[in-house]
Amino acid sequence: MLRAIAFNLLQMFVVLAFSPLAAGVLARMKERVQARRGPSILQPYRDLWKLFHKDQVLSEQASWIFRFTPYVVFVAPLFVTLLIPVLTDYPLFFAFMGDMLGGGFVLALAGFFATLAAVDTGNPYGPVGASRTRMVGFLAEPVFMIVFFTVSFVAGSTIPSIVQQKWVTPPANFYAPSHLLLLLAFLMLILAEGGRIPVDNPTGHFELAMIDESKSLEYSGRGFALMKWGGYMKLMVLLCIYLNVLVTPWGLAQGRTLAAVLLAIPLVLLKILLFLLVLVGIESSLAKLRLFRITEFLGAAFITCVTAMITSLLNF
Amino acid sequence: MNALTPFLDNLNALAGGLFLLCAFGMVATRQARGCLNWFILQSLLLAASAFLLGWLHHSVHLFGVALVNVVAKPVIVPWILRRTAPAEIYTRREIDQALNIPTSLLIALALVIFAFFLAQPLAAAVGPDFRGPNVPIGIAGLLLGAYTLTVRREAVPLIMGLLAMENGAFLTGIALARDLPMLVELAIATDGLIIVVIVGVLTRAVEQHVGTTAVGELASLRESAAETTGREGAE
Amino acid sequence: MSVLIILLLPLLAAVLACVRGHRLWAPVVTVAANLAGLTLAVRLVWATAAGHSATAVMNFGLWRWIAVDGLSALVLLLVAFVGATASIYSAGYMAHGDLKPEKLRLYYANYNLFIFSMLAIPVLAEPTLVWIVVELTTLCSALLVSFDNTRAALEAAWKYVVLSLMGAGVALFGFLVLFAAMQATGGGVYTWGGLVTAAPAMPPVLLRTAFVLILIGLGTKVGLVPMHTWLPDAHSQAPSPVCALLSGVETTAVLYVILRLLPVMQAAPGLRAGTWAMALGLASAGTAAFLLLQVRDYKRLFAFSTVEHMGIILFAAGLGGAGGSQGAVMQMLSHSVTKSFCFFAAGAALLTLGTRQIASVRGLFRSSPAAGAALLFGALAIGGAPPFAVFLSEFSIIRSGLVQHRYLATLLLVLFITVAFFGIMRHVNRMVFGRPEAGARGSLAAPVPLPFTCRLALLLSAVPVLVFGVWMPDSLHALLRQAAQTLVSP
Fold this sequence. Notes:
The structure holds three protein chains of three kinds.
Chain A: H1 2-33, H2 43-52, H3 64-81, H4 100-120, H5 125-155, H6 160-166, H7 177-193, H8 221-247, H9 258-285, H10 294-314
Helix pairs in contact in A: 1-8, 1-9, 2-8, 3-4, 3-8, 4-5, 5-6, 5-7, 5-10, 6-8, 7-8, 7-10, 8-9
Chain B: H1 5-28, H2 32-57, H3 60-84, H4 101-126, H5 134-151, H6 155-176, H7 182-209
Helix pairs in contact in B: 1-2, 1-5, 2-3, 2-6, 3-7, 4-5, 5-6, 6-7
Chain C: H1 2-17, H2 25-49, H3 70-95, H4 101-123, H5 127-145, H6 151-184, H7 192-198, H8 204-222, H9 230-237, H10 240-267, H11 273-291, H12 298-319, H13 321-353, H14 364-367, H15 369-383, H16 389-403, H17 407-432, H18 452-467, H19 474-487
Helix pairs in contact in C: 1-2, 1-4, 2-3, 2-19, 3-4, 3-10, 3-13, 3-18, 3-19, 4-5, 4-10, 5-6, 5-10, 6-8, 6-9, 7-10, 8-10, 9-10, 9-12, 10-12, 10-13, 11-12, 11-17, 12-13, 12-17, 13-15, 13-16, 13-18, 13-19, 15-17
């Protein structure tokens, strides 16, 4: 049992430690594709270090929510890592505390606090971004629900680790149409929730066009560092769910020894790297959608999900 | 062959699922060229499904159907359109449609669910070796094609809706009517091509004489229309 | 063998009409080919009525798909007859428009292709091939409908093409389901005859679905309510000889396909296809009769009358039994010849007046006696006045309805026929009688004299309209009886 708790904490630590690396790699690859040199892949670590050593500047009008939010945003993805399969094939100690829906709600909690904090300071750009984030979130929620429902329906459970088994054996299940359509729908969801192109421009500095970035506009010092790190971790958590459950449910530790679990770490990082390449391809070839077209984008994701559910229903 | 059967079944179902997505794409896309591309993709998926079903049932007919679909629709239809219809139809975007796109998608979804309910008794009546989701998806493709026809106003999406209806009927046909003679399949394919020719010529005529390719907006013939003195025999 | 020649003649004419030459080359070729086709068709009908099947020798391989029995021979004869008279009419009518020679050649080539596609419908026995040919009729006639290239004509052609092809897509699905039903009984030849024999063994769900789909799909092409919205536009905007073809025989030929399915449906237990057919027929007849009261264009008037008559034919076929089927085939015959005559008359009026509006025409009889007389004659005939052919067929339908104790349905039918008659006569009377107004809209001042061929065509098509109301040659009578028999389930 101690070992199970230790592995769970190891998972948390892996996500904590490697998420800035993932963000750094993504930024550098994107710049490389555009024939620029790009920042070093360790730059996010240096940024976080710098920010932790700076003072915070807080507005006098801000309430406790403003000070509390960075902690929520930081802790929520960490909490979710306890529930999902990051390194191991089998459910770990805390995995039964919450299923996929629970994980989704925890992430939504973080988003909720971030929205409130953006409105809290009185900066005009905060509420603009917050309302847009809510719009995207409001449209993405049904898609999330249907994806989770379809996945659970097909696999017969809502615990991610158990769901993941369904697509490993028998191998023909991997090619089931519901699975492949779900891959497409979830990819569109990640683009929406992670604030990537075509939904939002993560590197833009133009406040009027910001959607996700606006939540950290007013933060500085430690608060800003926590918000950034929380953002990196959220993306990594989504990627872990996507890759380890849906896309490549192999390569996770099957044994219960420390060696097996440690071996899984580079494999998971490799999977994330490959996916980041795909993400760079998508981001470099599409343009950002106009705000009102985002509804159509998410509508398309919704339709894909429902088609996945329908084709899975038909095979019974 | 037995070991491969679930694998092939799944691939066929995947082709069907993507076929349905293409039909949705045709409802939702704004650009004329995009509609044409979705149609080409849909035809290729139809060919893939025919190929897989032919493999499963050892039927040469279906291989022929697949071949015809790969050649006729993705290649010849765009070529014919380019020759007969005026070139500007490719650049048209429908800025406003009869219904906005999310609503259209939801209605299309309702039509698909309706199609699946329709397909249940049919599938039950046909027999035990009836494979996969072809029948419901084919009926859904038919209904979505008809829906595209009613909602769109530009010429190319209208033509694509027509051809999509035929694709849907065909997808059902390759599962239901597997032994249809090759001659008939070829004739149906040729028929599709003639449709494109004639409609292309009509579109060109409309563009020349009426001045727009938004053919769905031509709606003036009614009892109360102020009729001009129509001298017969073109002046 | 003669069947193949009948089919090949229009194809040959279409090819020849494209040859550049004298201005009269294309019309002469068309008329000659159609007249030859008519002669061969008459001979075929004679042989079939006497009991020799024209296609008995061709019972192997691909030729199994060509079969001519009583009903097919009747439709073939109708197509050939109207095709011939309309080609004679076109020779004079189209020459009047000062068209460019290429456009005229295009017209005749298209015309011949259209005739070919319509001739092929009754001849083919495999339902999917028949579907293909029905689609071909839409495609060949699309450019004919839009021939004038006015905004209205193009709109009518576009609506026609889109709605017909949409219906054809649905019908294709129905035919494929029918094929699946056939396969579920364990195979058998997929022809009309094969379907009738295999019908009792087919799963009723499939049969019902196929019937509904084909009824809706092909019903769009026939013009049954509520899929009729394209018909008044297309059948009024086309040039008059084309209108005669469209209204006279094309809708009849497609209705023939639906009627071929009725015995198949009736052989299967519990399907009540007859009741469906009767209900749809009554709906069409009723809607058309009431819509016809408020038309403003006299070609649309006749187009609505087509919808009404298609409804009556479907009603009679649904009625079933010896009397109903006999009435249906007789109505097909009388409607085709009469409706083509009506459109010839309307074309004559249009040529003379230059306007399609009913409101701007008065005293046609005085300004152009030929056109006025023809219009009046046609209106009376199509409305169902005695002693014309339509009266006889409608009377036999009503009588068989009463004999079969369907009192309510027959009463409704009589009501609709009366309303339609009243509507047609009111409009036509206003046009024909009275004195021509000076300074009215439309060029009544110098009426164009009717070309000789138009008059000839009018005369030729008037003959059956009058004659069949009182007397019918024996072989034709025998043919009608054979045709009626194929409609009744064995």
